[in-house]
Design a protein that fits this description.
The protein is α/β, with parallel strands linked by helices. It has helices at residues 10-16, 36-42, 58-69, 82-91, 96-107, 113-121, 123-129, 134-145, 152-156, 169-179, 190-203, 229-242, 270-275, 294-305, 418-425, 444-453, 468-472; strands at 2-4, 30-32, 167-168, 208-211, 224-226, 246-248, 262-265, 283-286, 311-313, 324-325, 338-340, 346-348, 361-363, 371-372, 384-386, 392-393, 407-412, 433-437, 459-465, 484-489, 494-495. It contains 17 helices and 21 strands. Helix 3 crosses helix 4, helix 3 runs parallel beside helix 5 (96-107) and helix 4 (82-91) packs parallel to helix 6 (113-121).
Length: 496
């Protein structure tokens, strides 16, 4: 007997558990599920054994595909189709069901490399058109439909990222929060609730963990996440039906859905940006390479056409070597909650940054910004502020007023007024993550006072310590929430 608990969930096991007597007579019940919560629930019975199926290897995947696609050739792939067959098989990521379905469809197609390349390129439309592939869509659709309402927009948001894209944990959960998908629950902060949602999506096998930190038991601490290509196809179809988001690729000539709320751009055409109606757009993400003159022009366009933006993300946008400045009209985006220029050649922020009174996340890591304008102190709702070591605050006296800050990185103490800066940091009682660099002997007493007062700290990074003695002399009371303490000693030439 075998059954799937995907639809019935844990309640089904409550109904049948006591009817299944382990009398050692050889009978077995096989339960299949893609939900990790079901597995944990069934484990309460001592005779349960869990067999976690692993994806097929690349070799086995190709063998299975060829067996289905070239059954009349005894599974031998024609030479002209070897490369494209491997490409199609790789899209299946070792999933037998997907491989068998793909092989069955292609077995009926002309064995022409151009035909097969078209199939690979337009896989999403083929999934909709061909009845042979409906099983995959149905299974993925069931997984989506089974999600609680609170998790559905979180999963759909992965459609904002390109195919095979690996997104960092902090980036995706801060964007969820900016969108309003996450609410405080049972006294937990929105960040902790969001991490819980991410963990559940992983346990349901809808989101894959790419890189895992040392603590492998905590799924939500994985560094990067992605979704399977076929699942992404389903997400994009659902997103289109719901006007949730639209992904515009480099070769995509389609026009923007009028009611789409979110837009990801993988084309560098400013003409497209000028021609689209931006009044509905709440999130705008870019995954493109700009020419020298394009990026500054785009920065001026956005505050004019997309006034209701909550999320604006330029992370990793590649450009020519010239640097650029953010336009003064950036401050007109008063609804903005998430703003990232990470890994761009941005040189400065305008004074109007202080008008973004709803901003919660500002990411300036790997940019050319050297000074944070004094107006940044007006951002009272800012929760996460990230920048490069060596960046200076134009006005130290305003830092302590940003009392909503939970993440602050990377603050260099190699500045004039370092002790005054530490005193201001003591006022940030909600800090969870703090990264300090270029710490010196004269900062020791003030630094200990700082750590003693920030009782909500979960992660502390202290870099540039002069020697081991300074580390030993760092006396502070136990931090009840501390999970990570990273001390980087220059003399040791290694973290401790």
């Amino acid at each position: 007997m075998s059954c799937s608990l995907m639809m019935y969930g844990t309640h089904f096991w409550d109904d049948v558990e006591h009817a299944l007597i382990d009398n050692k007579l050889g009978s077995r019940v096989f339960i299949t599920t893609r939900d990790g919560n079901v597995i944990n629930y069934c484990k309460k019975s001592s005779f349960i054994e869990v067999h976690e199926l692993q994806p097929l290897t690349e070799k086995k995947s190709l063998e299975l595909f060829c067996k289905k696609a070239f059954f009349d050739l005894n599974g031998n792939c024609p030479r002209n189709l070897v490369k494209i067959s491997s490409e199609i098989v790789n899209k299946c990521n070792g999933l037998p069901l997907a491989i068998v379905a793909m092989g069955g469809v292609l077995a009926a197609k002309k064995r022409d490399v151009f035909v097969w390349e078209d199939f690979s390129k337009y896989l999403s439309s083929e999934l909709e058109k061909d009845p042979s592939l409906n099983g995959i869509g149905k299974i993925l659709g069931i997984s989506y439909d089974d999600l609680p309402a609170s998790l559905k927009p979180c999963l759909l948001y992965f459609g904002m990222y390109p195919e095979d894209y690996e997104v960092k944990q902090e980036r995706v959960i801060w964007q969820w929060i900016a969108e309003g998908f996450i609410k405080e629950k049972n006294g937990k902060s929105v960040e902790k609730v969001a991490k819980g949602y991410l963990t559940e999506l992983v346990s349901r096998n809808l989101v894959q963990v790419v890189d895992v930190d040392d603590d492998e038991d905590d799924l939500a601490r994985g560094e990067s996440y992605r979704v399977h290509d076929l699942l992404r196809d389903m997400i994009l179809k659902k997103s289109e039906d719901l006007s949730f988001c639209q992904f515009i690729s480099k070769d995509d000539q389609s026009t923007l859905c009028v009611k789409s709320r979110r837009l990801s751009m993988a084309t560098s055409s400013n003409d497209f940006m000028l021609s689209t109606e931006g009044s509905y757009i709440r999130s705008l993400l870019f995954f493109i390479e700009f020419m020298e003159e394009q990026f500054p022009k785009l920065l001026r366009i956005i505050p004019i056409k997309y006034k209701l933006l909550k999320v604006l993300d330029f992370e990793g946008v590649e450009r020519d070597k010239s640097d650029c400045e953010a336009p003064e009209n950036l401050g007109t985006l008063i609804h903005l909650r998430y703003l990232s220029f990470s890994n761009t050649r941005l040189e400065n922020l305008p004074e109007s940054i202080g008008k973004l009174e709803n901003l919660e996340t500002l990411d300036l890591t790997l940019t050319y910004v050297k000074v944070l304008p004094k107006e940044i102190g007006k951002l009272r709702k800012l929760r996460h502020l990230l920048f490069e070591s060596g960046v200076k605050f134009a006005a130290l006296e305003d830092i302590g007023g940003m009392t909503s800050l939970q993440t602050l990185s990377d603050v260099s103490l190699d500045v004039d007024g370092a002790l005054e800066l530490i005193t201001e940091l003591e006022k940030l009682g909600q800090l969870r993550v703090l990264r300090l660099s270029k710490v010196k002997e004269q900062h020791k007493r003030a630094l200990c006072s700082l750590l003693n007062k920030l009782q909500h700290l979960e992660e502390v990074f202290i870099g540039g310590l002069a020697d081991r003695e300074l580390i030993i002399d760092l006396h502070f009371t136990a931090l009840p929430m501390l999970q990570v303490l990273h001390l980087d000693c220059l003399e040791c030439n290694s973290p401790m």
